[in-house]
What we know:
By secondary structure, the protein is α+β, with helices and mostly antiparallel strands. The chain has one domain (about 5-60). It has helices spanning about 5-10, 30-35; strands at about 40-45, 50-60. β1 (about 40-45) and β2 form a beta hairpin.
Amino acid sequence: GCNACYRACPVDFKIYEDPNNPTCIRCGDCIKACPMSIIKVGNIFQGAGKESKELWNIGGYS
């Protein structure tokens, strides 16, 4: 990749290595910086009565 997402990250997080690592602060700077728009954010539901969990999806990988 072009590493634009790496350069944009304020916490020096490497999203491609582990997109759902808790180090990520979910600021969205990587999404804005990506010229190919391959970083996506979505929610999954854990089940009735439980909160949804935000997941990052990178070019079809999650």
